[in-house]
Amino acid sequence: MPKLRNVILLLLIALGFWHFYGETLKTTGFQGVFDEIQSDINLIKANPLFKNTVDFVKTEIEQLLDKNEPKSNQPIVEKPQLDIPTDQTFSVHNIEIGDARSYVEKIVGQPKRSSMNEYGVDWVAYHESYHNFFMVAYDKQDLVVGLYTNQDLLSSSVGIELGTTRESVLAMNYDPLEYIRKGWVSYQINSEEEYDFFQIDDNYVTIFYDIEEGNSVTAILIVNDNLEKMKEEIYGKPSKELKEGFEYQLFDLTNAARVKNDLPALTFDEAVKETARSHSTDMAENYYFNHTNLEGKSPFDRMAEDDIVYSMAGENIAMGQFSSIFAHEGLMNSPGHRKNILLPEYEALGVGVDFNKESQPYYTENFLSQ
């Protein structure tokens, strides 16, 4: 269609040209046509109505374009000035492990959400329309015992920040842990080089890498040693609260990643959340992991059964990760799943989580456009 419109436009221009200058072209050739056009232009410019007409047309076109220009929902939010931490090796949004909640909220204001995490306390999320996104865990004294961000809010006394290469991280004077002990059991850390796990400043520090961006630092999770010990097993204890917590955290992490990549945030779709949760439950109860269920139904079949209306849809699934943080970071390092997370056309997301008998979480994300 655009090609046809261009052809028609060229024909109209040619007909107009012939109507006004055809006779001149026949008698005096192109030079005569050029001289006549120049003369006409000078006469038009000399007309006092010309400037007013041009200004009017220009104003109308600008107003029309402004009306049709898609309005960005992205607010302009300034990144905070980051300082080198004074008491700890790492800080997030100039907040360190051990800081008081009153200090945190004096800096950033009230939280946007609190939801249960695998340690039995809440992740408290702070952000401005998902800009400057980070999460904090507090102990009973309202002191910071956990920090996470996947945005450019990381500062350190060892030169590590968002975008630092894994090679530079490993050049620190800290060796990554190969095991973590829970009770009498030591669990091997199998990160496939997507993250490294350290013990620094009496904290467990997980540094995540973006393989698609040159294996560079993309997020950090800092958990105080005492909080980590509260989780007696490798997985958190399943509960209704933890299920909902993982769902909202995965939703928030997805939006934080989209905003970080200059994309609009998604709305939370309660209806498709139920579709996603049902699939996670089915996989957990029947011990399989696939987009197609044991009845041969695809994600789109399941959405149709639940009367979900959409023009475009997609699904991400994950299983066995310790938390929504690990699930999200893993999905971002999988090209197909990453594409769903960062697809500009999507408008809504529903997240569903459930656990199998071994407490392993199953995660399902259903993306939609109406």
Describe the structure.
With 370 residues, the chain is an alpha+beta fold. It contains ten helices and 15 strands. Helix 6 packs parallel to helix 9 (324-332). The model is unreliable at 56-72 (pLDDT under 50).
Provide the descriptors you would attach to this structure in a database record.
370 residues; 4-stranded mixed sheet; 10 helices; 15 strands; 24% strand
**Which residues form runs of ≥5 with pLDDT under 50?**
56-72
What's the end-to-end separation, in Å?
Answer: 25 Å
Write out the strand line-up for the largest beta sheet, numbering strands in chain order.
2-3-4-5-11-10-9
Biggest sheet details: 7 strands, antiparallel
Question: How large, in whole angstroms, is the Cα Rg?
Answer: 29 Å
Number of extended strands: 15
Amount of beta strand: 15-25%
Order of helices and strands: HHEHEEEEEHEEEEEHHEHHEHHEE
Give a short synopsis of this structure.
The protein has helices at residues 2-46, 48-68, 101-108, 166-170, 225-230, 240-260, 270-286, 299-305, 324-332, 335-341; strands at residues 90-92, 113-116, 122-128, 131-138, 144-149, 154-156, 179-182, 185-188, 195-200, 203-210, 216-224, 267-268, 312-319, 348-355, 361-369. By secondary structure, the chain is an alpha+beta fold.
Question: What is the element layout, followed by pairings?
Answer:
Blueprint: H1 2-46, H2 48-68, E1 90-92, H3 101-108, E2 113-116, E3 122-128, E4 131-138, E5 144-149, E6 154-156, H4 166-170, E7 179-182, E8 185-188, E9 195-200, E10 203-210, E11 216-224, H5 225-230, H6 240-260, E12 267-268, H7 270-286, H8 299-305, E13 312-319, H9 324-332, H10 335-341, E14 348-355, E15 361-369
Parallel strand pairs: 12-14
Antiparallel strand pairs: 1-6, 2-3, 3-4, 4-5, 5-11, 7-8, 9-10, 10-11, 13-15, 14-15
Helix pairs in contact: 6-9
